[in-house]
Amino acid sequence: MNEKMEPEITDKLIEIIKITEGNICNRCLGRNFSKVLEADGNLERGKYLRQMLSSITEGGNDPSTTEPCYVCNDILKELDKPNNIVDRIVKKINESGIEFSNFLVGCRVDPEILEREKDLQGRINVDVESIKKEINREVGKAMELKLDQEVEFDNPNLVVTVNLKNGRIEFQTNPIFIEGRYRKLLRGIPQTKWPCIKCRGKGCERCNFTGKMYQESVEELISPEALKVAQGRASKFHGAGREDIDVRMLGRGRPFVLEIKEPKIRRFNLEELKDSINLYAEGKVEVLDLKFVGKERRSQIKTSSTDTYKVYRAVAELEEEVEDEVLESLKSLKVIKQRTPIRVSHRRADKIRTREVRNLEFKRIGERMLELVIQCEGGLYIKELISGDQMRTKPSVSQILGTPSKCVKLDVLEVNI
């Protein structure tokens, strides 16, 4: 201890004893000197201060012990008793069957305790950690020893909240995230659940009381098996963009992240999960390359859609047949100015986007039918690139060929992220 600090310490020590009438536990006493007195924790610091007090005040080592602590009302003494709050937490965790590899502890403290602590620290002019921080730290340390698991502040698997006023213990298991790619093998399936536009998901005659516009989605074909194995409460699907309902997603598939909320099981065999999903989806959807990822991938996947390139295969129907030399002019499609398409203008900002066509190949498959393979920047609407969308997309296949054209079939062959 710094000798120059001793008079200041003794003065504040005596003042605390005066304010609390001696009714203060060693932890609360020691906490007020945590910045000026080195010791192995506030409990030991408080014991040392008791000894210091006895040398300067008669009977100072054992002030009144009949009343509860002025600050914490003796809740901190509970930490040192058999079958304390830590034992009860560990027992509840073991009974819950929750799987985790790290945790974080938080507590709720009676506001009156926090007010008394704030008032005392204001009167003696100290700025130290709060009683809540001490409880969280001490409970966390004790749990690390009993569970052989570590405290994790940034992204804990399990968050334990203890209400010290009523003794209630609550758990929050943070989500797990599984990244993969999906292939949509059939047309007519949306990516995510689509609530009925009439009843908003409540169920009505229009949707046959299912609450949905479509009976199944990519999300609903993938999620159930993952929820089952993780024993999760719910899930949320995050895709790297999305294809239209009538468009297949082929090739290596579209990247996605599946978020499983409140899982009891955090680690399982993803190869087995892949097989289960593919069996459940019955050839409609197929997943591949599953792996566990951090929560940051959720946002990265969603924002990466327009940052890379995609490859499409489209079948275009022309109103009139055109000559071969005219078809060659399709290769001039490079920089596209595309105003938000009419079909999505109700849910997208109305603006003009510039996108690049990197490569375009074509072949005739009928008198007025073309197959186009288009490699382009993400965010380019292919159906409108073909039709022109009432001149909202310039140039377009219709404009270049000099005849109205429309996309009758579309597949995504590659999403390169």
Describe the structure.
With about 425 residues, this protein is α+β, with helices and mostly antiparallel strands. The chain has twelve helices and 14 strands. The protein has four domains: about 1-70, no CATH class; about 80-175, VC0802-like (2-Layer Sandwich), CATH 3.30.2130; about 175-305, Alpha-Beta Plaits (2-Layer Sandwich), CATH 3.30.70; about 310-415, Alpha-Beta Plaits, CATH 3.30.70. It is about 30% helix and about 25% strand. Strands 5, 6, 7, 8, 9, 10, 11, 12, 13 and 14 form a ten-stranded mixed beta sheet that branches. A four-stranded mixed beta sheet has the order 2-1-3-4. A hairpin with an 8-residue loop joins strand 6 (about 235-240) and strand 7. Helix 7 (about 220-230) packs across helix 8 (about 270-280). It is elongated and about 110 Å long. The chain starts with 5 loop residues before the first helix and ends with a strand.
Radius of gyration: 33 Å
In the CATH hierarchy, the architecture of the largest domain is 2-Layer Sandwich
Q: Number of folding domains?
A: 4
Taking pLDDT < 50 over at least 5 consecutive residues as the criterion, the unreliable ranges are none
Fill in the CATH topology of the largest domain. Alpha-Beta Plaits
Shape: elongated
Q: Roughly what is the average pLDDT, rounded to an integer? A: 91
What is the C-level CATH assignment of the largest domain? Answer: Alpha Beta
State the share of residues found in helices, binned by percent.
Answer: 25-40%
Q: What is the number of helical segments per DSSP (H or I, 4+ residues)?
A: 12
